[in-house]
Write a structure and sequence with these properties.
With 180 residues, this protein is of the alpha+beta class. The protein has helices at 24-30, 48-57, 109-123, 139-148; strands at 7-8, 12-16, 65-71, 77-87, 92-99, 129-135, 151-162, 165-175. Bound molecules: coenzyme A (COA).
Length: 180
Amino acid sequence: MDRPTFLKGKNIFLGPLSKNDDLEGYATWLNNQEITLYMGSGRFPVNYDALKDYISSFQNSKEGMLLGIFLTTNSKHIGNITLHQIDWLNKFAEVGIIIGDEESHGKGYAIEAIRLVVEHAFNKMNLRKVYAGMVHGNEASKKAFEAVGFQVEGTLRKHFYLNGKYLDCYRMGLLKSEYK
Ligand SMILES: CC(C)(COP(=O)(O)OP(=O)(O)OC[C@H]1O[C@@H](n2cnc3c(N)ncnc32)[C@H](O)[C@@H]1OP(=O)(O)O)[C@@H](O)C(=O)NCCC(=O)NCCS
């Protein structure tokens, strides 16, 4: 059965996940301490039941969406992206991303996925702002969001504990009016 495409890019496409999907890759990423180094996940182990519950929590939700990131060439599941914490009054939402498949790192897939979700947020959902947060030191994440036009709006001081240090976190944002 073909996987449904929700948002189509050049090298990747984004589609809904189901709790009946093969979740081995997803579980592997979220339990991999290198992948989750700068993420809130990774503090506690994640099993298949927890992933299924997480996927189901987005079903019929109007407060957020979870999309798998798949390679156009072979439909390989390489990561996930979320548009969540949707605030319909103030018209903003948060973007979160993981490219869990290490072979897929550094190929521009994060940038492409963020662009697809941002354009959907602005052009189809009538949101006017998107934001993201990342730990100081997560250069790949900061650069990916910068490439789409996000700017640093503030710093959360000593916000994330890692290896004996409390690290600062960036808060980045992008307004529809400044998106090119
Ligand atoms: C952060 C992450 C999503 C980036 O995904 P990616 O597909 O490898 O990123 P891209 O290939 O689209 O590259 C984005 C930018 O980061 C740069 N980059 C990629 N890997 C990098 C690395 N290890 N160190 C520094 N910069 C890096 C790229 O050169 C690119 O910058 P450019 O536009 O100036 O050339 C991915 O590394 C990841 O999922 N990491 C683990 C989870 C995580 O940290 N998520 C973000 C939480 S906010």
